[in-house]
Specification:
nine-stranded mixed beta sheet; 2 domains; about 500 residues; disordered C terminus; two-stranded antiparallel sheet
Length: about 500
Amino acid sequence: MNESNSDYKKRVLDAISPTYCAAKGLNGTVWLGSGTSTACHHPPASKIPLTELKASYKALLNTEYRKTVRKEMIDGIQTKECDYCWRVENLGKDLVSDRVYKSIIHSEEDIQKSIEQYKNFEDIAPKTLEISFDNLCNFACSYCNASFSSTWAHDIKVNGAYQNLVSDGAGAYHQDGSWAMPYGIKNKDNPYTEAFWQWWNNELQHSLVELRVTGGEGTMSPDFWKLIDWWEQNPDCKVRLAVNSNLGAKKELIERLCNATHSFEDFHLYTSCEAWGEQAEYIRDGLNYDEWLNNFDYMLREGNCKNTHVMMTINALCLGSITDFMDDMLDLKRTYGDHHACMSFNILRFPSFMSVNTLPEDIRLKQALWIERWLSANKYRLAQHEVEGIERMITYIREVDEGHSNVSSLESRQRDFRTFFAEYDQRRGKNFVETFPALKDWYLSLPMTELKPIKELINGDNTKAMEFVHKELLNKAKEEGWILSPSKANPGSQEYVEPQTVRDIINPDSNE
């Protein structure tokens, strides 16, 4: 009998620490265009200091801040940047959060090795790495923003900032994304891109299990095709390549991607959607649902994709048609096998006014019941992780009625919901009321915020919000006896070391 994810959590992770997560050391996401990184797609991005990068290209994922967070996880602390998982786990002791899914993919040997690396603030070479070369993207999804989509950036530059938004996350719509691409769309002289290629050439092409390329839309990036060209010239590379694509790019790019898959023994495709038909097209501006579904089918039929995955972002607008969408995914599974159209259920947190907990309780409970009935009828056709993801989603829809930050009130989030989508309709030529008739009465009952118009764009750097957390954690580490000292592993850089080892680093030959 296969071990359940809950039993794995108890046997492997909890034996290390109730807050240990392998992703914090063995996984990483790096936005090379902006020089920011995170351990997975849930925590906010943080800056990679150029001073640390100059000392070692491994600082792409091994900043002093990240090493300190790893130590917290070993010490059983629910570190602040990982609120996504703690929110889920704190709903019930038997609930499985994403830290389990992001740990179980790694070997237990690598996990055991990471324990001492976490404790000793060592540089860690990831086993799975996700990179974004730039923010070039042909979509402008409602819950995305200019930092991650050049099409969103164009909207803001042409039409200005969205007005009268006051809840947390609203600042994302007051900026044009210029902070995210300081080196331009060609990434010329970008030290972060150069650091990636250094690490790739020296180590990662041999040590990584998986390299995953995201965006923007990865297929629109010149650096992405540079990577594909490298791979075609180095066919013996054993690293698994995974690509995130919205499958809505120009036909020639989709065909080129499909053809490229035949150069790999182990190619994985990730795409995104969570609603059906015109509701999906409303949420993901730029999407043509039928075209997306046809392109997905084309990649499955003509490509060499070992597995395909669908990343679903669970938001306030997808619940009404989510079961219709999942029916389409089941059809793909039936045609191409259970290892295709594998669904993951990711709860949207920011902007908080688009979260499912912005909806009124009666609508949430009704939708949760409908999804629960669908699950009961289709459970036998789903993988264990999909069943657990849907069960977790149902619990979240029913029980969580506050935003993740606990900063914005329900009233402010609902006001922003109405205000944002009224302006979104005007800018994008859409109609909320016609697209979501089940939400019509509630939507029209909401007041819109009336504040002084925003005339100037803000900087928009989304790492600013977490700076106080970083400083607080590093200061705490120093107060508890951890000090900065020259690194033995990386001469010229610094790392935190335990007080009892300082003597050995200063004078390793001393017997005193």
